[in-house]
Amino acid sequence: MRGRAAALALAVASYAHAQDADPHDAQPERPTVATHAYTVAPGWSEIEFGLEFDRAESTHVFSTPATWKVGLAKRLQIEATTFFVRRSDGATAQGMGDLFLSLKWRLADTLPVLGDFAIQPSVELPTGSAATSNGQTVGEFLFISSNHFGPAELDVNAGWIERLNDRATAPPTAAIWTVSLGVAVKGAFGWTMEVYGYPGTHGAVGSAPIVGLLTGPTYIVHPWFVADVGLKLPLDGPQPHAFYVGLTWNMGQLWVADRATAPSR
Fold first, then answer.
1. DSSP code string of 196-259
2. Of the candidates 248, 245, 250, 249, which has an alpha carbon nearest to the alpha carbon of residue 64?
3. Residue 121 domain boundaries
4. Is the CA virtual torsion 95, 62, 194, 4 positive or negative?
5. 1 in Cβ contact with 138 (< 8 Å)
């Protein structure tokens, strides 16, 4: 699943200096491939939306990833992601993509080395249109570590991807790793940089290893509204160049939770 999410800008917070306890502060997972260990406050809701333009030789892809996150408990959030995609490679195909469902659970805070630590199981369901869905049901399990160093935040992810059907056309098991650094530069401006990779797989449907770089600025329009823009560049393996722009908006409180459980970061 993260392989698709990578191409569609599912990601980690570059908003590295947002460390106060206001539950209305946005906590972007955009724009990077990685995610952070933090969760939306209980009863609060957040949406992330982006536009991405990918180009690889004769293929052009335009997509609009959108993620809705809801805090269920002090350390637990649920999120759903889908997107519209238009692909052109001589012929043109467009439609809604598959649905991704994730549950993030922060297990501990301020551990030695690991810092704030979370796990995130996810599933991709083949709900997209016939022109854009790959027809696969894919599970993923991610380990997430987040550490603060002054005005910087370091997020490290590692996990594996398991295809639950259609194993004859894609590797049944794959892995992912990401290292993301977000830094507060000046005032409302920040910068994010990430290196991510998918080790190669073997067999008749094996794939070559992929390593990519993502980088770009972020801007805090308001504590509950953060914008981002940047580039994805291939370092190794077959993958497109990409340009993205997006925003994260904490929409507010859906229901009243215990105020003692409000801080999430």
1. EEE----STT----EEEEEEEEEEEEETTEEEEEEEEEEEESS--EEEEEEEEEEEEESS---G
2. 245
3. 2-261
4. positive
5. yes
State the Cα–Cα distance between residues 248 and 227, nearest whole angstrom: 6
State the Cα–Cα distance between residues 212 and 222, nearest whole angstrom: 30
Question: What pTM does this model have?
Answer: 0.86
Sign of CA dihedral 105, 173, 214, 9: negative
Say what the pLDDT of residue 148 is: 93
The amino acid at 260? A
Helix (H) or strand (E) holding 6: helix 2-7
CA distance 45 to 71: 7
Residue 68 sits in a domain whose CATH number is 2.40.160.40
Alpha carbons 2 and 78: distance in angstroms, whole number: 16
Q: How far apart are CA 74 and CA 19, in angstroms?
A: 15
Per residue in 162-172, pLDDT (tens digit) is 988 766 666 78
Residue 162 and residue 138 in contact, taking contact as beta carbons nearer than 8 Å: yes
DSSP string for 35-100: --S--PPBTEEEEEEEEEEEEETTEEEEE--EEEEEEEETTEEEEEEE-EEEEESSSEEEEE--EE
Here the tokens at position 249 are 């908006």
State phi, psi for 4 to the nearest 5 degrees. -70, -40
What's the CA gap between 43 and 74, in Å, rounded? Answer: 9
Distances (CA, A) of 177 to 63, 111, 161, 164, 252: 23, 20, 11, 21, 32
Residue 6: pLDDT above 60? no
Rounded Cα gap, residues 216 and 196, in angstroms: 15
What average pLDDT does the structure give for the chain? Answer: 86
Q: How many domains does the chain have?
A: 1
CA nearest neighbour of 48 among 28, 63, 34, 33: 28
